[in-house]
Design brief:
- Its EC number is 1.17.4.1.
- Belongs to the ribonucleoside diphosphate reductase class-2 family.
- Residues 1-20, 857-912 are annotated as: Disordered.
- It comes from Actinoallomurus vinaceus.
- Helix content is 39%, strand content 15%.
- α15 packs antiparallel against α16.
- Among the domains are: 1-139, no CATH class; 571-640 and 728-737 and 888-911, no CATH class; 743-885, no CATH class.
- The protein contains 29 helices and 26 strands.
- The chain is globular, with a radius of gyration of 30 Å.
Length: 947
């Protein structure tokens, strides 16, 4: 039995819900709250205005004024929750305007359901449950997945699950049902996965005598359907996973499907079609709305290892109809992933070896992000814990509160299955019979850094493993307690031995963890205790839930909880882009950095110096006073010291044995990685016991080209000759803070923006031009042109040389402008360089080039010498510009990010000098950031995934 102080709850079995004898509820005890004090009363609240704009054209995407949130919540979290989760039409009295209303709506349903179904021993216990849940949510300690916030407590169906697995049989009726079921799931804001291996291959005959179409052909229809449906009303595109077994006769066609389409994209792009993400022509390309994975068996992997042949089997009879070279097929799998990041790989025998319900059926598929793996026609509702909330000021991990929070979450999630609606009756039946849950966490990367652990280190992996083991141990122990109070899940009896076997496997894996310091030792000690109780209670009571834990991408809800890192991911980079209350934004160094430096023993003066260095450079290499052996603590997913691909794989391997499901994560690989490198990653994933793995090689997608800036710099270093007597040109960079002007102009009806930055002595040193739609060819060319001009100016090329070359250049658009000094222009280039000349060149130089201001031309017409206008004054050239001065940053150590940066990903690009591999958000145009195997938009919270 649980010790005194543990939170106890009780649910009711399916039979009780149907009117049979209900069981007595149990007592609950407080974790965070105090008797007689409502959790909202312990929070400081404030009113804010939420105005979200599209930075490309300044249009307002969303506006709601006077919303109420805790003062501790960031602008990003407030904006995302207000725009995505508040229900009711904007501008009507029915619209939610306070976080209290949102949390009351959701928690009210959980508490009411618990009371109605006998979950609690008394009204007081129900109140404690209600208060604890509200406290945890309002204080960003954990969050349910998005469908809970979308649907619970509304007039909509109470869909709470983010992840669904469907099934498809080898009949036309089943295939058409698949299309329909996916559409319903996408409409509800969730994602689904399916294994198509039951469908006969194109090498097999139909009963009528004809040849079967094969699963790849049916993928086209499902892909087209997914491409037209937006999840959650209008917030994100459908997310889906398609799996095919490695012994399917069409597996080679499946492997090469998306790589061929990527070739098509390149050809169409080169022919002038708009193939950008969201472009009008990208819809002509197939198979782009799903993640693809090949399900490999141990038999196949051993054949790869030994170089043997492998049989592809007919779907109806199971006989081998073709023998192939296993190593050759594995090579094609790696080559396709190298070329376009698809397909990923799932390890079938490992997945099913950890399956608690094998007597019911095999696990054949996963959700779109590969973390939920369970029976066909099933679903899973997710919840993720903010790990950083349990790190005390003294750098100790609050094990006791973490244990109690896990108990509370599992109890609440089990209640949700009682009231939840499901998109199909088959899914509802399976979920109610097996009650799969998905507790997980976010902010692991931030926690590791804050405690002085490198992500790719034995200490980091030990801490991650112990936390994961503790979380799952508590979850299953709570499940066993609930089973003793209200009964096991309906499918437990036939799977009891298998379920208990998997519990023992988890406990054995926990015993094999090697702890390295006091923090992970204390966590491991509690985890061991929890697994011992779990096994004892499970042997006596059985279990309430077939599955308990997984690691989801935590995209939108990670932003809602103000997490620095998502899921199991490390920090993306050491600097990020932060929105400010009242508008504006600034670049900040992540708060975990100074905390880590303090933990490593640095003094305040040293910490400030390192933080200032990171703010300027984006990395810690050569930071003043920072010891080289501490560099690894600050390694990130991107940047100067990016974590190696195998570092990500090893972290996954450290946590996988303690998860019911799997891990949503993509292993990023550098552009220069080879096909052999991909083969090694996929092979090591099998050896290390992972359930699934996906890779992404930088710039393998057409829409994400590498900037030439960094490469050119590197080439110059490599090509530098031996020391010579004469020194070449020296680049003089602009200071971190510099004066600049922003000019809005129109030439022949085409609008643009020009930002010109100057040295302290007023010499022009940088030009940025903004023309065309973000991501378009014109915008890309102008970005490259701006960089070329800026670098040349910093190497000393005179501005007048550029003016001489580009004025009077003729091409469309041309004609009238809105500038009184330059009424007509023969082209954009003609206008831009005339404007730069007027703003930055002395009169004598401009006179030789024939460029005069309106005032100077007026003087000429009146018979005066225009030079007399400048004879008695030192010309302030900036005052001649038809522009607005750029506001200077207020804090030295936190300068305003470049004008082009609108997210942390774009900020990282400015530090690295290259384009990050991330898509643009379809809703607001902001560049998204990785979140597990998906992407999330910091601007509006939209995701490319299903959580």
């Amino acid at each position: 039995m649980p010790e005194k102080g543990d939170v106890m709850t009780e649910t009711v079995s399916g039979s009780a819900r149907r009117g049979k004898a209900s069981r007595k509820g149990v007592k609950m005890e407080r974790i965070f709250t105090r008797p007689g004090v409502h959790p909202y009363d312990d929070v400081k609240w404030e009113r804010r205005d939420v105005v979200m704009t599209n930075w490309r054209d300044g249009s307002v995407n969303f506006e709601q004024k006077g919303v109420e949130f805790p003062t501790s919540w960031s602008v990003n979290a407030v904006n995302i929750v207000t725009s995505k989760y508040f229900r009711g039409a904007v501008g009507t009295p029915q619209r939610e305007w306070s976080l209290k209303q949102l949390v009351d709506r959701v928690v009210g349903v959980y508490t009411e359901t618990g009371i109605k179904n006998g979950y609690f021993a008394s009204d007081e216990d129900a109140e404690i449950f209600d208060h604890e849940l509200k406290h945890a949510l309002v204080n960003q300690v954990f969050s349910f997945n998005s469908p809970v916030w979308f649907n619970v407590g509304t007039a909509s169906p109470q869909q709470v699950s983010a992840c669904f697995i469907l099934s498809v049989d080898d009949t036309m009726e089943s295939i058409l049902d698949w299309y329909k079921e996916e559409g319903v799931i996408f409409k509800g804001g969730s994602g689904s996965g399916v294994n198509l291996s039951r469908i006969r291959s194109s090498k097999e005959l139909l009963s009528s005598g004809g040849t079967a179409s094969g699963p790849v052909s049916f993928m086209r229809g499902a892909d087209a359907s997914a491409g037209t449906i937006k999840s959650g009303g209008a917030t994100r595109r459908a997310a889906k996973m398609v799996v095919l077994d490695v012994d399917h006769p069409d597996v080679e066609e499946f492997i090469e499907t998306k790589a061929r389409e990527e070739d098509k994209i390149r050809a169409l792009r080169d022919a002038g079609f708009d193939m950008d993400l969201g472009g009008k022509d990208i819809v002509s390309v197939q198979y782009q709305n799903a993640n693809n994975s090949v399900r490999v068996s141990d038999e196949f992997m051993r054949a790869v290892e030994s170089g043997d042949s492998f049989g592809l089997r007919a779907r109806r009879t199971g006989e081998a109809i073709e023998q192939i070279d296993a190593k050759g097929l594995f090579r094609k799998l790696a080559q396709a992933a190298w070329a376009c990041a698809d397909p990923g790989i799932q390890y079938d025998d490992t997945i099913n070896d950890w399956h608690t319900n094998p007597e019911t059926g095999r696990i054949t598929a996963s959700n779109p992000c590969s973390e939920y793996m369970s029976l066909d026609n099933s679903s899973c509702n997710l919840a993720s814990i903010n790990l950083l909330k349990f790190l005390g000021e003294d750098n100790t991990f609050d094990v006791a509160r973490f244990v109690k929070l896990c108990e509370l979450i599992i109890t609440a999630m089990d209640i949700s299955i009682t009231f939840a609606d499901f998109p199909t009756e088959k899914i509802g039946e399976t979920t109610r019979a097996y009650r799969q849950l998905g507790i997980g966490y976010a902010n692991l990367g931030a926690l590791l850094m804050a405690t002085g652990h490198a992500y790719d280190s034995e200490g980091g992996r030990s801490l991650a493993g112990t936390i994961t083991s503790l979380m799952t141990g508590v979850a299953y122990r709570r499940s066993a307690e609930l089973a003793g109070a209200v009964g096991t899940y309906e499918g437990y009896a036939r799977n009891a031995e298998a379920h208990k076997r998997v519990m023992r496997k988890h406990a054995v894996a926990n015993d094999e963890i090697r702890t390295l310091d006091e923090m992970d030792k204390s966590i491991h000690l509690e985890a061991t205790k929890q697994w011992q109780q779990c096994l004892k209670l499970g042997e006596r009571n059985g279990y309430r839930n077939a599955q308990a834990s997984l690691l989801a991408p935590t995209g939108t809800i990670g932003l809602m909880m103000d997490c620095d890192t998502t899921g199991i991911e490390p920090d993306l980079a050491l600097v990020k882009y932060k929105k400010l209350v009242g508008g504006g934004s600034m670049q900040i160094v992540n708060n975990t950095v100074p905390r880590a430096l303090k933990k490593l023993g640095y003094q305040q003066e040293q910490i400030e110096a390192v933080v200032e260095y990171i703010a300027e450079h984006g990395h810690v290499v050569d930071a003043p006073g920072l010891r080289a052996e501490h560099y690894e603590v600050f390694d990130c997913a991107m940047g100067e010291r990016a974590i190696s691909p195998m570092g990500h794989v090893r972290m996954m391997a450290a946590t996988q044995p303690f998860l019911s499901g799997a891990i949503s994560k993509t292993v990023n690989m550098p552009e220069q990685a080879t096909i052999e490198d991909v083969e090694k990653i996929y092979f090591e994933g099998w050896k290390l016991g992972l359930k699934a793995l996906a890779i992404y090689r930088d710039n393998c997608k057409v829409g994400q080209p590498l900037s030439a800036a960094k490469k050119k710099t590197e080439e110059k270093v490599e090509e530098a000759p031996a020391p010579v007597v004469e020194r070449g040109p020296v680049r003089t960079r602009l200071p971190k803070q510099r004066s600049a002007t922003v000019t809005r102009f129109s030439v022949g009806g085409a609008e643009g923006y020009m930002t010109a930055s100057s040295y302290p002595d007023n010499g022009l040193g940088e030009v940025f031009l903004k023309l065309g739609k973000q991501g378009s060819t014109l915008a890309g060319v102008m970005d490259a042109f701006s960089m070329a001009i800026s670098i040349s100016l910093q190497y000393g090329v005179p501005l007048e040389t550029w003016v001489e070359k580009f004025t009077n250049m003729r091409f469309e658009p041309a004609g009238m402008t809105d500038d009184p000094d330059i009424r007509m222009a023969t082209s954009m280039m003609d206008y831009i360089f005339r404007r730069l000349a007027l703003d930055h060149l002395p009169y004598e130089t401009r006179a030789e080039l024939g460029i005069f201001s309106a005032e100077e031309r007026t003087a000429q017409a009146a018979g005066q010498d225009p030079a007399s206008l400048h004879a008695e004054e030192d010309v302030d050239r900036e005052s001649l510009a038809q522009s607005v001065p750029v506001e200077q940053p207020k804090a030295k150590e936190q300068p305003e990010p470049p004008a082009a940066a609108h997210s942390s990903t774009e900020l990282i690009e400015s530090h690295q000098g290259r384009t990050a591999d991330a898509p643009l958000c379809l809703t607001c145009g902001t560049k998204m950031r990785p979140a597990g195997s998906c992407y999330v938009c910091e601007g509006c919270g939209s995701t490319s995934g299903c959580s």
